[in-house]
Specification:
395 residues, alpha/beta, binds pyridoxal-5'-phosphate
Length: 395
Amino acid sequence: MTHKSFHPPARTLMGPGPSDVNPRILEAMSRPTIGHLDPAFVGMMEEMKDLLRYAFQTEYALTMPVSAPGSAGMETCFVNLVQPGDRVVVCQNGVFGGRMKENVERCGGTPVMVEDAWGAPVDPHKVEAVLKANPDAHLLAFVHAETSTGALSDARLLAELAHSHDCLVIADTVTSLGGSPLRVSEWGLDAVYSGTQKCLSCTPGLSPVTFSERAVEVVKKRNAKVQSWFLDLNLVLGYWGGGGKRTYHHTAPVNALYGLHEALVILEEEGLEKAWQRHLDNHLALRAGLEAMGLSFVVAADSRLPQLNAVSIPAGVDDAAVRTRLLQEYNLEIGAGLGPMAGKIWRIGLMGYASNRTNVLLCLGALDAVLADMGAGIETGVAVGAAMKAFSQAG
Ligand SMILES: Cc1ncc(COP(=O)(O)O)c(C=O)c1O
């Protein structure tokens, strides 16, 4: 055997996720593995459900992490709520709305699409018109924070529209949870999924979900069996449901759940509103620096995500060469554009633990140095100063 242990390089993760993991979470994950039905573990699971209710701002009883990444949270919502023949209104303004469409089709449903430009939020007027034209639809699905473009949609208004047309709401909050205001119960979102690797700054691989009582009723009254055995909530709840006896469903990812528990404790210690404000303050400083450099944002200011900054790549600049130099020379990862935006934008994440002043200055300084060295037509030497000024104004 010539193979050795794998030691990853130490990077600063300022892409679209995963974000830098808080060392406290890594330490929690290294604690001894115990059985997933051990009373001590079960006690931790109950705490985790409360902590998730706080993070989501939800009172829903069915709140738990799915043992798989955000995509599995997405599938959990669709496979449980969509039956063959259902019409589902799906909003698409980036990559992830497209995956929702796929999910509806694979469940035997018919997606009715509401399309918006990549970089724009979901347009409530279009949604209302489609809901009116499709009175037989019973579900509206949208992405709250579109990671592929950095656009934030008005989840509260979309939910209001859906309910006034007797639709339940599926909302993707993978990138918004912990980073942008999200109030699941107050806004009446019915089936919500998220991820651990963005603003919770945990390791990737788990997907917190929360379901309203109305959504649970729909799942219980289904005629057709849920097509996925692993994601069938009727079965998963035998393990995650409260109260009675817990039965084996699958072997829970014990140490990953220690990590999520710690991430949620950290969020509770900071306070949700303070975390949202921190994401905003650091975004404003990064924005001041990027704009001073001459870079422009893809998304209009009133629907911009603080945790995902999408900027246009200056004309004539080689996207991949810049990202490679940032990685090699500064150990800094920023994200590339996806789909039609590939080669046209960079996505700079300021998520969770990675949303801090040090990272704002590192990113601006490194980008400035690399772009100036490559002869890009930017305003050089001013970005870091502009961010520092924004910090001093934030106090
Ligand atoms: C908005 C959104 N939805 C869903 C996903 C899928 O999550 P995962 O990659 O954890 O499966 C992502 C991942 O980046 C995302 O950004």
